[in-house]
Write a structure and sequence with these properties.
This protein is mainly β. It has three helices and 39 strands. The longest helix has 30 residues.
């Protein structure tokens, strides 16, 4: 069967060539146009042409051909990678690569005790074995230690790593390397270390590394032990104290120890002894073996009855002085406190102060007031309040109470229904009241031989109530306060002419228009506690001139003179307790001055040094210490052989 379509197309092509041909187009004749007639044939809007079919042949789509090619290519790539992996595995295990120092054929094991004592020297052994077919060259063993590790007990710096040169390890060779270090950590805590072997192989400058598994250590003991004393049940809003003891269990000094206390929510810090370096941090310094350091802090804890609060106490060391806290923890100990509401609320004040500790002067009068309140809704019967004095011994004859009884046998003041005219016999729910007493602290003469004297007042309250079942219950409540006695520091300024250590010039009595030289001696005494940051200042009048600095004694003391305002400053520093008492020499310094009287001063005894004052800090109480001395005039009554007639200015 002949397809008519190619003939029709051929006719159209011929006609198209004739139309555009220069030689044939003129020969084309114009035919008469036909008139179109409606033959009634309906032509559809769409059409399709029947494609010719090839007999016995199936042609795949082009995209199926590319998919087949991609599949075979993927299979080839997978086979390639498997072959490469197999080759590498063979090469670096039993092939040629193994003979060039494969890390997989190097064994590094660490052996030793799994439990160690923190702060004590520990010996471990590292075993390196070479199973390669060739030797290892320039081998170095690098030990990576846990934080806080030190080379010896006396070392003050951490040792994060250690490099040990081994040299050559022959094929099949085994090397044992002992190491010795001091590990640090809290009791029951864990740490780990690791060893690495750096080496080279023959014919290569590359450095290869093989490493061991982590070696775990468990600390059986800590170089520092923490003991915490305090009330495990306290009253919300009432002063409370906590005593932390840090003890060294090490055989060598622990350098630059730090104590950290994390305060619980609701705790308001009031004081501490010694002072904290910053909030919750104490710089203990070096602790000798077997020695202990005591830290006491006071404050108030606020919370609801039944709440539990936790003080988190930790001790350790730091890497550098500028570290903000503990870098290596040696010991940790939480202290849990339960907040309770006592049946009888107690509040203790001394000389009007409600602080945790109060500072009084030697020989001073102390007034104690105890406020009480029934926190129950039911009544309390037969209430008893006892204030017991402990620590510094006082004179019982000075204890006075209008509504209590002083019992000298145990230094206690007692209040009950008999001493309070029945007030404490029945205390109604919500009822409150106050009792009190006063006494006198020992004078300075008695306290001179006592270092950092203090006295504690502990108040106990007890009573009975009927429970819901009708059974009588005994109830108790406690509050305490510490009274510290300030060191009795004394200062004096004395003038000298006849006994002038610098040698005097000019005349006495002083004459107008002529200079007379004097010596001023400062004397400082101290009794019970160390005074820190001590400084003494004075002012020379405008008609006095300083003859220093060569005329200051002793030369070891730090004395300065300001010409702008005429002030003299003696930076004393620390004053130890017992200075100038019981036969001990006082702390003293002397300066030389020159006085040229004016005619307006004739007949007077002019001031030659004025505004003499002292400032410092009592290390035991933390209180500021300030003293003043009277002005020094030309009337030198402390100068041996001096007469009052020599003090008045003459013409």
């Amino acid at each position: 069967m002949v397809d008519p379509m190619p003939n029709d197309e051929e006719k159209m092509n011929r006609l198209r060539r004739a139309m555009y041909s220069r030689s044939l187009s003129p020969k084309l004749k114009e035919h008469q146009r036909r008139v179109l007639e409606d033959d009634g044939i309906s032509v559809p809007e769409d059409w399709k042409r029947q494609e010719p079919q090839l007999q016995g042949t199936t042609v795949a789509p082009r995209y199926l051909e590319w998919r087949s090619v991609a599949r075979w290519l993927g299979i080839a790539l997978i086979a390639f990678f498997i072959g490469v992996a197999g080759f590498l595995a063979y090469y670096f295990t039993i092939g040629g690569g193994a003979s060039q120092g494969s890390a997989g054929n190097i064994g590094i094991t660490i052996s030793g005790p799994s439990r160690v004592s923190g702060g004590e020297p520990t010996t471990l052994q590292i075993t390196v074995s070479n199973q390669n077919k060739s030797g290892l060259e320039l081998a170095d063993l690098v030990v990576l230690y846990p934080p806080g590790t030190r080379s010896s007990p006396n070392s003050s710096t951490d040792m994060p790593s250690q490099r040990i040169s081994i040299g050559v390890i022959n094929s099949g060779g085994v090397v044992n390397v002992p190491i010795r270090a001091v590990f640090a950590g809290a009791e029951g805590g864990q740490a780990n270390l690791k060893a690495q072997l750096e080496y080279r192989v023959t014919g290569s400058s590359a450095v290869f590394v093989a490493e061991s598994q982590d070696y775990d250590l468990v600390f059986s003991s800590s170089p520092l032990a923490i003991t915490i004393d305090g009330n495990s049940e306290i009253v919300s809003g009432q002063p409370t104290s906590l005593t932390v003891t840090v003890t060294s269990n090490a055989t060598a000094p622990i350098k630059d120890a730090i104590l950290s206390i994390g305060y619980p929510f609701g705790f308001a810090f009031s004081s501490a002894s010694p002072r904290q370096a910053k909030e919750g941090v104490w710089e203990i310094g070096d602790i000798m073996p077997g020695k202990s350091v005591l830290i006491t802090l006071s404050g108030t804890l606020i919370g609801e009855s039944g709440d539990e609060r936790v003080f988190r106490v930790a001790a350790g060391t730091r890497k550098a002085k500028d570290s903000s806290g503990i870098d290596t923890v040696f010991s940790e100990s939480p202290f849990r406190v339960t907040i309770s509401k006592p049946f009888l609320g107690l509040s203790l004040s001394v000389n009007g102060s409600n602080d945790g500790s109060v500072v009084v002067t030697p020989g001073g009068n102390v007034g104690v007031s105890v406020l009480w309140k029934n926190n129950l809704t039911t009544e309390i019967r037969d209430a008893v309040i006892v204030a017991r004095l402990s620590g510094l011994e006082i004179d019982g004859t000075t204890v006075k109470s209008n509504d209590g009884f002083y019992r000298s046998s145990d230094n206690a003041v007692l209040w009950d229904k008999t001493t309070t005219s029945g007030t404490l016999a029945i205390v109604a729910g919500g009822g409150s009241g106050a009792v009190g007493f006063n006494f006198q602290m020992p004078p300075s003469e008695i306290l001179q031989t006592i270092r950092e004297p203090s006295l504690s007042i502990t108040v106990h309250a007890a009573g009975k109530r009927l429970s819901e079942s009708g059974v009588s219950e005994s109830l108790q409540s406690t509050v305490s306060k510490t009274i510290k006695v300030a060191s009795d520091l004394g200062i004096a300024a004395e003038g000298y002419y006849h006994n002038n250590p610098f040698g005097s010039s000019g005349s006495v009595p002083p004459q107008t228009g002529k200079e007379t030289t004097y010596a001023i001696r400062f004397v400082v005494t101290n009794t019970t506690s160390k005074i820190t940051d001590a400084k003494l200042t004075a002012v020379m009048p405008s008609y006095i001139r300083s003859l220093g600095p060569a005329m200051y004694l002793p030369l070891s003391e730090k004395i300065t003179f300001n010409r702008d305002d005429g002030s003299v400053t003696w930076n004393i520093g620390d004053i130890e307790p017992g200075v100038g008492v019981n036969g001990a020499p006082p702390r003293q310094a002397a300066i030389a001055i020159g006085f040229t009287p004016s005619t307006s001063q004739i007949g007077t005894q002019p001031v030659i040094l004025q505004n003499i004052s002292f400032t410092g800090t009592d290390a035991a109480t933390g209180a500021d210490v300030s003293r003043t001395a009277r002005d020094v005039t030309t009337n030198l009554m402390s100068d041996p052989g001096f007469s009052s007639t020599e003090s008045v200015v003459v013409r």
